[in-house]
Amino acid sequence: MEPAEQPCGRILLVDDESAILRTFRYCLEDENYQVSTANSASKAEALLQQHVFDLCFLDLRLGEDSGLDVLAQMRVLAPWMAVVIVTAHSAVDTAVDAIQAGASDYLVKPCSPEQLRMSAAKQLKARQLVARIEQLEGQVGKPQEGLDSRSPAMMAILDTARQVASTDANILILGESGTGKGELAKAMHKWSQRGKKSFVTINCPSLSSELMESELFGHTKGAFTGASENTLGRVSQADGGTLFLDEIGDFPLTLQPKLLRFIQDKEFERVGDPVTRQADVRILAATNRSLKDMVDDGRFREDLLYRLNVITLTLLPLRERVEDIAELAERFLLRFVKAYSTPARGFTEEAMTALLSYSWPGNIRELRNVIERASIICTDDQVQVSHLGFSGPALNSAPRVGDELSLDELERAHIAAVLANSETLDQAAKTLGIDASTLYRKRKQLAL
Ligand SMILES: Nc1ncnc2c1ncn2[C@@H]1O[C@H](COP(=O)(O)OP(=O)(O)OP(=O)(O)O)[C@@H](O)[C@H]1O
Residue ranges of the Sigma-54 factor interaction domain (predicted)? Predict the structure, then answer.
């Protein structure tokens, strides 16, 4: 049996005439929208406190209450929600005032079911476009290639990932930096039944405990200095979809009980607001650290770890899936020569051997960076070894502490690996514990 089609928008109807509420509701539910109704301003307010809506149809004449006041209240309680005013022909002037006060559009009563459906579709489409733009902005520089592999071990991991994607189990994705944990999380969201809903990422290391709480759960205007308006929070944005907690090892210890409660009970409060809310969110988390060790050191809660890793998927480092290097390199080359309009079309045999024999401490991210650079500097149709930016012993195997190496060689290899793993020079300098100008000088000195 085909699964029932998921509703693609949550709509609030506010009108004091119950016959209108009923007709509008039937009409919109036929289109698979999730509809709630309120016949007074106070009921609408209560619903807005409890749920997240994408769109509201608001009658401006609401018994005692002024529709414009209700609209103003809605802008405060749910600034993300589109509001379409429903008005009598004689009151179109007030509808125009309402648009100036933040409503998105108006419908003149009596309106046909078709007009209502078209209006809902138009508003929700606009919201989807905004969400899509935000999603794409978050993905700038990220590839969209599918996930596949020729390595049997990696194929088995991807098979399990596909299988468990359709369950609602929380998944912990482990793997060295740059192995594609974020890419796998996105793919698992797409493979799941939530695939058409939002995929929301929260990057744990970038936020303090206070900011993380408001980023996750939202806050009300005035909840803290600088909170200039109500915000929805990532958990509500991900309602019905997936929340990806990247670098969960850096999730603030003090906030872990609140995350645990949300995972267990699906309940949370916005900062500055005692109302308990609910959101239906599937959690994926990733880390390159050992959470088990962190639990032993008291830096991560054991109960949270158990909740997060209902299923654990561990991605292989690139050096353990050498079968994939050639195809990934070719895909990256194709993408970057297109983007930079440069002539390279393939690799010389020597260059391909070099790619295959390198140990890739920065994994797929490093490979991507190396090929991007090569695609820019190669003025021929074949990428040569010299374009790869490798030199000397780094080609063979990654040096390890304790190997027969000079300090200079070890330093060079370490800096090269950190650079390959970092998005920016500043980030690399921070990891290395030196300032960016020193790193810049060392790169030149070491010909990196
Ligand atoms: N299968 C793949 N095909 C193409 N590009 C990929 C693939 N896997 C990863 N990448 C690219 O490699 C880079 C690193 O991937 P991603 O951020 O998912 O890794 P990660 O393991 O989450 O890294 P970190 O632990 O540092 O956050 C990104 O640019 C990503 O787009």
Answer: 147-376
HEC sequence for 82-135: EEEEEEEHHHHHHHHHHHHCCCCEEEEECCCHHHHHHHHHHHHHHHHHHHHHHH
Report the domain count for the chain.
3
The reply to whether 178 and 229 lie within a common domain is yes
- C-beta of 150 in contact with ligand 1 (< 6 A): no
Q: In this structure, are residues 44 and 130 in contact, taking their beta carbons and an 8 Å threshold?
A: no
Give the separation between CA 388 and CA 355, rounded to whole angstroms.
8
What's the 149 CA to ligand 1 centre distance in angstroms? 14
Model confidence pLDDT, tens digit, residues 214-226: 999 998 888 787 7
Q: Quick one: what percent of the chain has pLDDT higher than 90?
A: 41
Say how far apart CA 267 and CA 326 lie, in whole Å: 47
Strands 242-246 and 199-203: parallel
At residue 173, the 3 state secondary structure works out as strand
Is residue 399 within 6 Å of ligand 1 at its C-beta?
no
Q: Do both 295 and 174 map to the same domain?
A: yes
* pLDDT confidence band for 144 (50 / 70 / 90): very low
Q: Whose CA is nearest to atom 26 of ligand 1?
A: 177
Residue 143: predicted pLDDT: 36
What is the position in ligand 1's atom list of the atom closest to the CA of 315?
21
Structure-token match 């994705």, residue found: 173
Tell me the per-residue pLDDT of 261-312, one tens digit each, with 9 for 90 and over: 999 999 999 999 888 999 999 999 999 988 999 999 999 999 999 999 889 9
Using CA atoms, how far apart are residues 410 and 167, in angstroms rounded to an integer?
45
